[in-house]
Automatic annotation (TrEMBL):
Subunit field text: Heterodimer of SbcC and SbcD.
Annotated protein name in UniProt: Nuclease SbcCD subunit D
Family indicated by similarity: Belongs to the SbcD family.
CDD domains: MPP_Mre11_N
Keyword rRNA processing carried by entry: no
Native source species: Streptomyces similanensis
Residue ranges the record marks as coiled coil: none
UniProt keyword annotations, A-Z: DNA recombination, DNA replication, Endonuclease, Exonuclease, Hydrolase, Nuclease
Function recorded in the entry: SbcCD cleaves DNA hairpin structures. These structures can inhibit DNA replication and are intermediates in certain DNA recombination reactions. The complex acts as a 3'->5' double strand exonuclease that can open hairpins. It also has a 5' single-strand endonuclease activity.
Stored InterPro entries: Calcineurin-like_PHP (IPR004843), DNA_Repair-Maintenance_Comp (IPR050535), Metallo-depent_PP-like (IPR029052), Mre11_N (IPR041796), SbcD (IPR004593), SbcD_C (IPR026843)
GO molecular function, one term: exonuclease activity
Organism placement in taxonomy: Bacteria, Bacillati, Actinomycetota, Actinomycetes, Kitasatosporales
Residue span(s) of domain Calcineurin-like phosphoesterase: 1-218
């Protein structure tokens, strides 16, 4: 069976205030063309279909068009909700849409109820694990600790239990939206840290033939059977080195996997330029970046006059301007941003406590800080009406 694995469309998202709707529409057209030209048997979409819980109308229209195209091709599609999606909104009408071959899996309680498709070699069971917010699903999954590893492991236990009841020849595919250990993050994924830990080990997916992951925006291979497709478009300059693509995965009769990347159309390349303003304006080696979306980091010791206006004369698509003056490491004017670089909210808070009190927090105080950050992050969930009862109903 040939699968197309994609994720993290983020329909409705912009790039530094530049609308990406046309680029997203171009990708969805490319997706349908690839499905047709490469004789794809099933499409899997591993979450973050939308960029936010209540997407703009134009994004909903894009999604509707994509569903009609896929249904018109007669190719089954299995799709889960991600941490940016509202699971309940995305899942509205799932029962009816299911009849058109579009299988929306947004309810955690149904994670062990697969979509079963068949090819010449037998059945393939597709298990959709939507994004599992630990605090909302831990009781339903019977785990004591509200952590990503615990709830995802519990969900996979249910998947393996169901798979064990099926014929031994049944092959299996799991869709999941999570941060798996070994994956490389970028600046454009929303933080899903709980209790100071976001990552789960790849071994949690043992026992299935292929795990189609979403959440991280870079296409990457964790193991031969555990892969991220990445986002089809860039959503931050940290993705400048990414090659945007989808996976074409061939699942053989014995469950062995071969995979090939198919590039996605990119509206403009990204370029991260660094140096003194005059050097950026004069260096002929930078000519290839004239039509790129540009992030310029200026290292001038003194902020130059009208830097953005001067940069856009040479690089008309400059979108981001960063000041990072070159100074000695012990210079008291070293930027606050540089001092915080690479630190998460928990570390910053602990450093602040140490700064104002003269001693860092003890173990109990660290737990209190962590609980406070977890609670604040939960309040930012896109659909606050999703109580644990509603999610598992």
């Amino acid at each position: 069976m040939r699968l197309l694995h994609t994720s993290d469309w983020h329909l409705g998202r912009s790039f530094h205030r530049v609308s990406m709707l046309d680029a997203q529409a171009a990708f969805l057209g490319h997706l349908a063309a690839t499905v047709r030209e490469r004789d794809v048997d099933a499409v899997v979409v591993s979450g973050d279909v939308y960029d936010r819980a209540v997407p703009p109308l134009a994004a909903v229209e894009l999604f509707d068009d994509a569903l009609h195209r896929l249904a018109g091709l007669g190719v089954p599609t299995v799709m889960i909700s991600g941490n940016h999606d509202s699971a309940r909104r995305l899942g509205v009408g799932a029962g009816l849409i299911d009849r058109a071959g579009i299988h929306l899996r947004t309810e955690p309680a149904a994670c062990a109820t697969p979509v079963v498709l068949a090819d010449a070699h037998g059945d393939v069971a597709f298990y959709g694990l939507p994004y599992l917010e630990p605090a909302l699903v831990k009781d339903a999954f019977g785990v004591e600790k509200a952590g990503h590893e615990q709830v995802l492991a519990a969900a996979m236990d249910r998947v393996r239990a169901d798979l064990a009841t099926r014929p031994r020849s049944t092959r299996s595919v799991v869709l999941a939206h999570a941060f798996v250990t070994g994956g490389e993050a970028s600046d454009s994924e929303r933080d899903i840290t709980v209790g100071g830990v976001a990552a789960v080990p790849a071994g949690v997916f043992d026992g299935v033939d292929y795990a189609a992951l979403g959440h991280l925006h870079g296409c990457q291979t964790i193991t031969e059977r555990v892969r991220y497709s990445g986002s089809p478009l860039p959503y931050s300059f940290s993705e400048a080195a990414h090659r945007k693509s989808v996976w074409i995965v061939d699942l053989d009769a014995d469950g062995s996997v071969t995979a090939e990347r198919v590039d996605c159309p990119v509206p403009r390349p990204l370029a991260r330029l660094r140096g003194a303003l005059q050097d950026l304006l004069a260096d002929p080696a930078l000519d290839p970046h004239r039509e790129a979306w540009v992030e310029a980091t200026l290292t001038d010791p003194v902020r130059p006059a009208d830097p953005m206006a001067r940069l856009t004369e040479r690089f008309p698509h400059t979108l981001s301007l960063v000041f990072d003056p070159e100074r000695a490491p012990d210079d008291p004017d070293v930027s606050y941003a540089r001092r915080l670089a690479g630190r998460d909210d928990q570390q910053i808070a602990e450093d602040f406590v140490a700064h104002v009190r003269g001693a860092g927090p003890d173990a109990h105080e660290r737990d209190v800080l962590r609980a406070a950050f977890d609670a604040a992050r939960l309040e930012e969930l896109d659909d606050l009406g999703e109580s644990a009862h509603e999610v598992t109903r």
